[in-house]
UniProtKB/TrEMBL annotation:
Cofactor(s) the record lists: Mg(2+)
Pfam (any one): polyprenyl_synt
The protein's name in its UniProt record: Geranylgeranyl diphosphate synthase
Source organism per UniProt: Solanum verrucosum
Entry similarity comment: Belongs to the FPP/GGPP synthase family.
Length: 370
C-alpha cells in the first residue's frame, strides 16, 4: 500500500499539512446523536471455531478438524503478546535515546518520568498505523519515541502546582516532588525540544519530505491548535458550572485527542500512506482520542488511587467538568461505546489482519481499568 502520490515535493507536502481536519463538535463531525444515543456494534470480526459435528466422522476427519481449528487459533491476533513486544522495543529505544550526560540532573529528571512505566499507547498507535499502510517498525520508531517524550512532558507540566498540582503519577512521586519545580519545568522543556530533534534526525528509511510533514503534524498537535489550546481552555473552565458539552469536547479534542491523533497520523505518513488512508486513520484517531478522555473521566470516579496509579477523584475535588458530570455515568459509558464503534468503522477498508492491532488498541482504550 506504499504510495508516494502526496508528499514528494514541498508544495505537495503543504497540501497534506492543510488537510488536517478542523475542530468541529463530535455531535456534528462524527454524526453521534447525543440526544438519541445508540451503541454501535463492534466491528471486530468474530471467528468462531468450526461447528462441524463429528458424530459420524472418522478419526481422520477429527484430526483434520482439529488441525483446522489449531490453524485458526494461530492466526488469531494476540494483543497481550503484541503489547509486550512493542513496549519492550519502545522502552529500549527510549532508554537509548536519552542517556545521562552533563549536566546529569536534567537528564536524570527527563529519564525519571520518561522511563517510569506507562502504557505506551501513543507509540503503539504510531507503530501500528505505520505497519497498516505498508511501512515497518524502523520507519516509525523515532516518531513513536518522540510522541512519548511529548506526552511525558505534558504529564510533568500538568502535575505542577500551577497546573493540576498532583503528587502521584504512574504510582510514583511526580517529577517536581523529586527534583523540584524548577528542574521539572526544564525537564519538560528539554523533552519537548528533543522530541523534534529525534524525529527529524533519527527516522530511517523515509524520504525527507515525509519527515518534514511528520514534524509539522507533531508541532501542530502540541501548540495552540492542539494540546496547549486544550490545556488553556481546561484551566479557564475549572470551577465554571456553566461549561457545556461542546466546550468539554473542544477541551479534550485538543488536550487529549490531539497527540493521540498525531501519533496515528505520523505513523501513517512515515509508513508511506496515501492521502485517503491518512484521512481515515485521522478520523479513527480522533475518535479514540476522545474515547480515551471519556474513559479517563469514568475511571476517575469509579477507581481508587491505588488502582489508577494517580490521585483518584481529583476532577471532582477541583470542580472540573467531566463527561460523567454532564451526562451521568451510564450515558458517559454509552458515549464511550459509540466512539469505539465509530473508530472501528474507519478501519473497515483496510486489511483486517493488519488492522487488528489498531482494533485491539481501541478496545484496550475503551475497556482499560487504569
Amino acid at each position: 500500500m506504499r504510495s508516494m502520490n502526496i508528499i514528494d515535493s514541498w508544495g505537495q507536502a503543504c497540501l497534506v499539512i492543510n488537510q488536517s481536519l478542523p475542530y468541529k463538535s463530535f455531535n456534528g463531525m462524527m454524526k453521534i446523536n447525543l440526544k438519541n444515543r445508540r451503541i454501535l456494534k463492534q466491528t471486530l470480526p468474530c471467528r468462531p471455531f468450526s461447528s462441524v459435528t463429528v458424530s459420524a466422522t472418522t478419526r481422520e476427519d477429527e484430526k483434520d478438524v482439529k488441525e483446522e481449528e489449531g490453524a485458526k487459533m494461530e492466526n488469531e491476533f494476540n494483543f497481550k503478546v503484541y503489547v509486550v513486544e512493542k513496549a519492550i522495543s519502545v522502552n529500549k529505544a527510549l532508554d537509548e535515546a536519552i542517556m545521562v550526560r552533563d549536566p546529569p540532573m536534567i537528564h536524570e529528571a527527563m529519564r525519571y518520568s520518561l522511563l517510569a512505566g506507562g502504557k505506551r499507547v501513543r507509540p503503539m498507535l504510531c507503530l501500528a498505523a505505520c505497519d497498516l499502510v505498508g511501512g515497518n517498525q524502523g520507519n516509525a520508531m523515532a516518531a513513536a519515541c518522540a510522541v512519548e517524550m511529548i506526552h511525558t512532558m505534558s504529564l510533568i507540566h500538568d502535575d505542577l502546582p500551577c497546573m493540576d498540582d498532583d503528587d502521584l503519577r504512574r504510582g510514583k512521586p511526580t517529577n517536581h516532588k523529586v527534583y523540584g519545580e524548577d528542574v521539572a519545568v526544564l525537564a519538560g522543556d528539554a523533552l519537548l525540544a528533543f522530541a523534534f530533534e529525534y524525529l527529524a534526525t533519527a527516522t530511517i528509511g523515509v524520504s525527507p519530505s515525509r519527515i518534514l510533514v511528520a514534524v509539522a503534524e507533531l508541532a501542530k498537535s502540541v501548540g495552540t491548535e492542539g494540546l496547549v489550546a486544550g490545556q488553556v481552555a481546561d484551566l479557564a473552565c475549572t470551577g465554571n458550572p456553566n461549561v457545556g458539552l461542546e466546550m468539554l469536547e473542544f477541551i479534550h479534542i485538543h488536550k487529549t485527542a490531539a497527540l493521540l491523533e498525531a501519533s496515528v497520523v505520523i505513523g501513517a505518513i512515515l509508513g508511506g500512506g496515501a492521502d485517503e488512508e491518512v484521512d481515515k486513520l485521522r478520523r479513527f484517531a480522533r475518535c479514540i482520542g476522545l474515547l480515551f478522555q471519556v474513559v479517563d473521566d469514568i475511571l476517575d470516579v469509579t477507581k481508587s488511587s491505588e488502582e489508577l496509579g494517580k490521585t483518584a477523584g481529583k476532577d471532582l475535588a477541583v470542580d472540573k467538568t467531566t463527561y460523567p458530570k454532564l451526562l451521568g455515568l451510564e450515558k458517559a459509558k454509552e458515549f464511550a461505546a459509540e466512539l469505539n464503534g465509530e473508530a472501528k468503522q474507519q478501519l473497515a477498508a483496510f486489511d483486517s489482519h493488519k488492522a487488528a492491532p489498531l482494533i485491539a488498541l481501541a478496545d484496550y482504550i475503551a475497556y482499560r481499568q487504569n
